[in-house]
């Protein structure tokens, strides 16, 4: 079950002070929601002053900068009211800058004021909505788009950049009272956000949702892959006595909405918004809303209400209004905290807060001193968690070795089913399945386990993006490799001499096979597409893939550029395995192999493109400089150098994968990782000019360079 907050706040200068003070408090609320483990924040777009937000991409980016893991949603983005190319640009950029955390919520818009402000007739909203989404979807997922539509037309446009989440970020359609909207969302494979409090009854909402699910199924989708989020006002209090304070805010918000309705410059065209007009009276009665249409009460009352409403409509998640009608900031923080501590755990495992510095105590905290006060017990717990974090890796490695994720696949299985299939003890399997559930690799309901969307994509061997061999490679490294002797390696300053024949965690497969197949899978899971499109290489005839390993990047590049011939330079043992992959992919005519050490090799020819993908870190700094200088010698005058690498942060101390991988490189082949500026300097010292840098949001990042000196 997902939980998040929907922000369509009503702003009053007398209550909230200046807009900048208001935004500061909102940012604090959003940072708190992130630290407390909520799934998403949703912001609404409106042009009417004091209602929601007018410049939502800017607000979304501010949330992204302030938070680390929470998803950032629009509820909704008014795609009917802007040129879709501009909307596609803004939201793709937010997706990139937030590291792929965008949930794109879209709707037609329901305020006549909003339509009037930009001169768009609300009677055109349905057609504009469908056309705008078609344009955005294509620009996000296709390289070059020509569109001839009723409202917008353009030719051969390439969006730069496209979103990180491909083909598109998850799309949510806001549906309230128009059956066609539910049907359209299902037919187009979109998630849903609904507002049952605006309808006559829960039964009416359930009917609309049946229509949505039917449309999903008819269009060939599996309804279990889709989220239906319910939009409700939340008022949570520790005891019944506080309940009166709640009413004031709900009444205030409803009065505000009424004034929005009556003060609009023009009314919505009733032919196109018929159901809204008939439903309008329902949301004028605040008392009715408080008693029957909102989630109001003590934690236990809220738990009961959430359970009851979720099963009545089949909701998979919630987006609560928590900041409305002038609810004070401190009370918003208190409610977020109380809900996270006492309601949420009934429905889900809460991810650990990654930023203890904005850990929030139950009592209201002044904005200026949101400092932590961890107890001794909490500190002891954190250190214990660090000490035992290896158990998480072991759980993943064991589940991967037993191939549990492929075995469960698209089905729902009990531990007895899984135990029977593996011919093992169901008690021990249940422990392992529960541990996977605690790591959010599985979900469990009524004793039955299912893959999460993430594990289905990344760990089920039937998925095209599966990285199970990459995980097996890490199992070899962690369980059998030299991490066990880290202290000794640090003392001696020497790496371990790897013997690939004696290294396998799973004796059925040699470790070199896991390494090379694992790198192939990692490249296929996003990075090869990124690297082959970062720079146009039309006209290039030859590519040298230095330390090409499995050859994946050469394969994908050759597919992209039909004129290209690639040469992989690597060791004999690696090339023997890679040959098989190249043959399997049908490219043995265009991908060739040369054996040699690139720091010293003189290949007697030049290439139009030289690729150094994840090789500079395999050697020490003098070795990396030798590689770069050799690349300069072998690159044709107008050629392109592509460098892909693990990057460390400015200080090399943050909690990214690279900081730990830097240790891995110390104790394995004795290589080095670099910061952006260091790598750029090295590339420039070798005689290149860096023309492009790309933070991919994945494991590795990219630099493009050309020769600055012949
Ligand atoms: C981490 S793998 C990267 C493989 C591939 N380029 C990728 O990004 O998936 C490093 C590869 O570089 C090769 N290698 C390391 N040093 C090399 C050198 N000096 N010359 C040629 N190959 C080298 C290794 O054998 C290995 O295949």
TrEMBL record:
The entry's keywords: Methyltransferase, Monooxygenase, Oxidoreductase, S-adenosyl-L-methionine, Transferase
Enzyme Commission (EC) number: 1.14.14.3
Database matches in Gene3D superfamilies: Luciferase-like domain, Vaccinia Virus protein VP39, Winged helix-like DNA-binding domain superfamily/Winged helix DNA-binding domain
All copies of domain O-methyltransferase C-terminal, residue ranges: 483-688
Domain O-methyltransferase dimerisation: 385-459
Cross-referenced InterPro entries: Bact_Lucif_Oxidored, COMT-like, COMT_C, COMT_dimerisation, Luciferase-like_dom, Luciferase-like_sf, SAM-dependent_MTases_sf, WH-like_DNA-bd_sf
A Pfam family per the record: Bac_luciferase
Chain ranges of the Luciferase-like domain: 22-311
GO molecular function, one term: protein dimerization activity
GO CC aspect terms: cytosol
GO-annotated biological processes: methylation
PANTHER family the UniProt entry points to: BLR5498 PROTEIN, LUCIFERASE-LIKE MONOOXYGENASE
Name of the protein: Alkanal monooxygenase alpha chain
Organism: Bythopirellula goksoeyrii
């Amino acid at each position: 079950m997902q939980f998040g907050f929907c922000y369509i706040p009503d702003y009053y200068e007398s209550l909230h002070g200046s807009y900048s003070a208001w935004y500061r408090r909102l940012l604090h609320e959003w940072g708190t929601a992130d630290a407390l483990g909520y799934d998403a924040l949703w912001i609404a777009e409106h042009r009417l002053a004091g209602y929601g937000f007018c410049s939502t991409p800017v607000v979304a980016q501010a949330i992204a900068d302030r938070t680390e893991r929470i998803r950032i949603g629009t509820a909704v983005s008014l795609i009917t009211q802007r040129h879709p190319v501009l909307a596609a640009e803004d939201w793709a950029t937010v997706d990139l800058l937030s590291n792929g955390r965008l949930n794109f919520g879209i709707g037609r818009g329901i305020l006549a004021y909003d339509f009037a402000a930009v001169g768009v007739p609300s009677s055109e909203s349905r057609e504009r909505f469908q056309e705008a989404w078609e344009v955005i979807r294509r620009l996000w997922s296709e390289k070059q788009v020509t569109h001839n539509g009723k409202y917008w037309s353009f030719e051969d446009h390439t969006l730069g950049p496209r979103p990180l989440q491909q083909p598109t970020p998850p799309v949510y359609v806001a549906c309230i009272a128009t059956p066609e909207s539910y049907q359209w969302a299902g037919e187009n494979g979109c998630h849903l956000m609904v507002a049952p409090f605006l309808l006559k009854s829960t039964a009416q909402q359930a009917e609309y949702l049946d229509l949505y699910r039917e449309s999903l199924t008819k269009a060939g989708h599996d309804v279990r892959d889709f989220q239906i989020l319910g939009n409700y006002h939340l008022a949570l209090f520790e005891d019944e006595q506080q309940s009166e304070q709640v009413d004031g805010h709900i009444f205030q918000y409803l009065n505000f909405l009424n004034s929005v309705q009556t003060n609009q410059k023009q009314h919505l065209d009733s032919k196109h918004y018929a159901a809204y007009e008939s439903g309008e009276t329902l949301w004028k009665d605040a008392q009715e809303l408080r008693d029957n249409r909102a989630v109001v009460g003590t934690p236990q009352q809220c738990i009961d209400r959430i359970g009851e409403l979720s099963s009545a409509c089949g909701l998979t998640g919630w987006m609560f209004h928590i900041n409305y009608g002038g609810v004070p900031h401190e009370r918003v923080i208190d409610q977020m905290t109380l809900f996270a501590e006492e309601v949420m755990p009934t429905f889900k495992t809460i991810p650990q807060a990654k930023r203890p510095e904005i850990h929030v105590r139950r009592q209201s905290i002044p904005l200026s001193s949101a400092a932590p006060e961890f107890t001794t017990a909490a500190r002891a717990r954190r250190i214990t968690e660090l000490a035992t974090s290896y158990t998480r890796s072991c759980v993943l490695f064991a589940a991967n070795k037993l191939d549990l994720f492929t075995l469960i696949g698209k089905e729902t299985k009990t531990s007895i089913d899984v135990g029977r299939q593996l011919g093992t003890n169901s008690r021990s399997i249940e422990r392992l399945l529960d541990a996977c559930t605690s790591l959010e690799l599985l979900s469990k309901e009524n004793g039955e386990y299912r893959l999460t969307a993430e594990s289905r994509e990344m760990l089920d061997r039937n998925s095209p993006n599966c990285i199970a061999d990459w995980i097996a490679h890490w199992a070899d490294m962690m369980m059998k490799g030299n991490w066990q002797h880290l202290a000794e390696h640090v003392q001696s300053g020497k790496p371990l001499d790897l013997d690939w024949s004696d290294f396998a965690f799973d004796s059925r497969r040699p470790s070199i096979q896991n390494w090379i197949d694992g790198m192939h899978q990692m490249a296929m899971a996003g990075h090869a597409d990124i690297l082959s499109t970062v720079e146009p290489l039309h006209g290039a005839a030859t590519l040298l893939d230095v330390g090409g390993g499995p050859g994946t990047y050469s394969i994908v590049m050759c597919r992209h550029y039909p004129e290209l011939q690639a040469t992989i330079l690597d060791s004999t043992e690696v090339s023997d395995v890679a040959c098989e992959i190249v043959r399997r992919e049908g490219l043995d005519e265009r991908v060739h192999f040369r054996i040699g050490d690139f720091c010293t090799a003189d290949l007697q020819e030049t290439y139009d493109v030289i690729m150094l993908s994840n090789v500079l870190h395999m050697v020490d700094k003098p070795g990396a400089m030798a590689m770069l200088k050799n690349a300069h010698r072998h690159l044709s005058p107008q050629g392109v150098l592509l460098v892909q690498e693990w990057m460390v942060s400015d200080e090399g101390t943050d909690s990214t994968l690279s900081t730990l991988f830097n240790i891995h490189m110390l104790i394995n082949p004795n290589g080095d990782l670099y910061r952006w500026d260091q790598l750029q300097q090295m590339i420039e010292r070798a005689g290149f000019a860096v023309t492009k840098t790309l933070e991919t949001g994945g494991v590795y990042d990219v630099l493009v360079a050309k020769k600055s000196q012949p």
